[in-house]
């Protein structure tokens, strides 16, 4: 073994450089702290991106390769877990903000107090958030302006008090967006432009998206799509205080005899092992990798994994399954929809977001229209797969299809969880995450009702055939991983406190979506970033007092 | 060396005309099978798109897995990722190897000749037997309600090829060869896209420099109906 000297201790080490990790890095370094970021994936740049469907969608250029980083899934404890590519999510610098569609609506005020509204829901572990919309609002606004977003402030009438509008105007309408809005209007429902992580006008040196159509699942070679890769990470690096090391895989959070975190152990791309010491550790690996890392960080002081005295690490996992109705339009009756133009989605509705118990279930989701994919992966259930029937279907329907989707607002259930697989290991020999999950009955009811409703909208839009695509089980098809280190005031029932600091280890934090006490029915990234900013502010103001000099 | 540092080899899937991986005979068999999966009619099919070349280059090794972003050359894979792909390609080679034997056996067993020598209907019958299901019939708007399960992938993520058997893999690879960017060896002159009316990018580079845009298919000047609503005006941009 060659002699080596570990890197110098710093103020904060952040595991992961996605939505949460990059936001924390920006806020902390801009306040003068020295931060090391460790990202297990590569540091790809915008010039590595282009509109190559095969590379990004079929050959996993930025999603984890399941041969190297498998996960296992089982519906319940009685069954054997099998290897799947559960919740494919880019493990790269920028994380999920690189491939995403950039949907950035805010949570509603009610999302923060679902327990108060609904009381005990049998079979679910529903709780209130320990914070309110008003506490998060200033940070929502900061992120919307610093990160770069587009939208129409005030157009979402379900939104709470808003202190400022969006920095750039709504994205241009696609044929699919117009078809959706027109049909919703016909049925007496409302729509508004999807708030998006994109700039639609020149903004802070960035140019709008070229509208090349390669948006959802594709990183942007330009500067139109907002990602932490092109915004918060450069901001942090410009302070001179952020040392971001890519291709560095953290395998353990280290603790001292006093029970405080001392740093992390990681392997670089050459396989050499290092220890990075710091005054504080922030984990931002995502809702699956974060509990996995905590559970792998066992020690004499923490035999059940770090920050797990409550036994709640990994539990209450929710995944926002994406379901939808497909509309097939008759090309003899309807103009082409050209689903591949624009940026995947361009409108949405919150009309079904808040609970209406007459539907037979609680909670709801935003709904939004989108295309069925680019040519290779474009498909619908029942599509003929080969022969002239297949060619006819492609030819007649490729430009005449759309779908309207939901993000399941799934209920937290304590037995739905992430833990360590007892037998399967990754390419580094470490135990992989095992997902145990069965949806709550309310999830099925909500999903079925909303998918059917979306089908009615497609019929109103003139679809000649509507096909519901309902979930059989959760597959993690949105890359949203939530709830696995839930935030709460009570150390017996939650993992992190209202500042996302673990109850058990006073200098260990979780800033990714693991903290979400309940799932919400919207995309989580904006809330992850706003909350990371809020909690990083608390570190600057309060927690860092009395730290040794880094 | 991390993925971001991979260098680009100045190679093309079109450097040679014929097979790199397949034998001449296997090339002709796969070409004939692909021609039944995406037949030529009044529009081009798998043959004209050179789908067999796409499949051959896919099986040739890890040199053609990822095109460079601008489509000029291919990334030279390294390390764990390269080894994982080499293993994946070896698995696919095994599937094609045994699939070709099966194709031959069924052709000779049922019709007494090699697959390439059979009529189109006979070839379809062989493929139908391999698929284990009736040959797909024409899509109809009026067909009975689908239950939403089964059939094509349900979701916004593609099918994982690693778990497919030979026939569905051949079907998917044929589709990929017909519709993926021409840099991968198929979709010659973008004819796959023309068949379905996808006005795709002339080159991958054109998706990077902003020269390729889909704006003319959008409604860029449309205003949302409540652009002047008081609540919206309250938050108007400075």
Largest sheet of chain A: 7 strands, mixed
Q: What's the assembly state of these chains? A: heterodimer
**Helix/strand class of chain B:** mainly alpha
User: How many individual β-strands of chain B?
Assistant: 2
| Low-pLDDT ranges of chain A | none
CATH class group of the largest domain in chain A: Alpha Beta
Radius of gyration of chain A: 23 Å
End-to-end separation of chain B: 47 Å
Mean pLDDT of chain B: 92
Keywords (chain A): FAD, Flavoprotein, Oxidoreductase
Protein name (chain A): GMC family oxidoreductase
Family (chain A): Belongs to the GMC oxidoreductase family.
Organism (chain A): Subtercola vilae
Describe what this molecule looks like in 3D:
Chain B: Residues 133-154 are annotated as: Disordered. Chain B: It holds the Pfam family Gluconate_2-dh3. Chain B: InterPro entries: Gluconate_2DH_su3. The complex is a heterodimer of chains A (550) and B (238). Chain A is α/β, with parallel strands linked by helices and 550 residues long. Chain A has 2 domains: 7-63 and 88-100 and 105-148 and 227-319 and 413-424 and 480-550, FAD/NAD(P)-binding domain (3-Layer(bba) Sandwich), CATH 3.50.50; 169-219 and 322-407 and 439-473, Cholesterol Oxidase, domain 2. In chain A, 22% of the residues lie in helices and 16% in strands. In chain A, strands 1, 2, 5, 6, 7, 8 and 15 form a 7-stranded mixed beta sheet that branches. In chain A, a hairpin with a 5-residue loop joins strand 7 and strand 8. In chain A, helix 5 (133-148) packs across helix 11. Chain A is globular, with a radius of gyration of 23 Å. The two termini of chain A are 28 Å apart. The relative contact order of chain A is 0.20. Chain B has 238 residues and is mainly α. Chain B has one domain (3-138, 160-198). Chain B contains 8 helices and 2 strands. Chain B has a two-stranded antiparallel sheet with strand order 1-2. Chains A and B meet through helix 2, helix 6, strand 9, helix 9 and strand 14 of A and helix 4, helix 5, helix 6, helix 7 and helix 8 of B.
